[in-house]
Specification:
Blueprint lengths: L4 E6 L6 H13 L2 E6 L11 H15 L4 E3 L8 H12 L5 E5 L12 H7 L1 E5 L8 H9 L4 E3 L9 H7 L7 H9 L11
Parallel strand pairs: 1-2, 1-4, 2-3, 4-5, 5-6
Length: 192
């Protein structure tokens, strides 16, 4: 049996203490966690992907955990392409795709869904207020999607909440000064 590998793509707009907790917990479960920033085709992003990837890279560097890697080269707005790139670069086939419970219902509409479910298992992180609905569970079973629902407890925070109220306490310590000094997310504060 090969290494256990988690692939964690995220919008990280910006990365929060929730992302930090997920990465830390994944490192306790998996031999290797590979993370990257992507542009979710269903979201509008406040900051450019280059800025968001720098923030996530900074967070991962601060974690100082050899079991957590940042690799922006595998980024794609399409999960299927990130999975293919990851498998090609790291030369392994056993892969768990990490996804939040708020997004799991969307996978049935993803580009190349049929291929994705053959390539990976899903590791579902339950976000408070976003339980995996019984209809979604039925569909996962109907399509023979391999999945596990994690018991990782993450803080009830989100990037969108930060963008709404600029509560810097939900950012990892390593990112607070970077966000403030570079006036990141400031443009959305402007009111006419």
């Amino acid at each position: 049996m090969g290494k256990s590998i988690a692939l964690f793509g995220t919008s990280a707009d910006p990365p929060t203490i929730g992302h930090e907790k997920i990465l830390d917990e994944l490192s306790k479960i998996y031999d290797l966690t590979i993370s990257y920033v992507s542009n979710n085709p269903n979201k509008n992003h406040e900051e450019d992907i280059l800025i968001r990837s720098h923030l996530l890279k900074t967070l991962i560097k601060d974690l100082d955990n050899t079991k957590v890697l940042f690799n922006q080269k595998i980024s794609s707005q399409w999960a299927v392409e990130s999975i293919e790139k990851c498998k090609k670069i790291y030369e392994f086939n056993n892969l768990d795709f990490v996804i939040g419970s708020d997004l799991i219902k969307d996978i049935f509409y993803w580009k190349n869904f049929d291929q994705i479910i053959k390539e990976v298992s899903f590791f579902i992180i339950v976000r408070e207020g976003y339980h995996v609905e019984s209809n979604t569970l039925k569909m996962l079973k109907t399509y023979n999607v391999r999945f596990k629902i994690s018991n990782i407890k993450i803080p009830k925070v989100s990037s969108s909440k930060f963008r709404l109220n600029f509560n810097y306490s939900i950012l990892p310590n390593s990112l607070i000064d970077v966000v403030k000094k570079n006036n990141l997310y400031e443009s959305i504060k402007l009111v006419e």
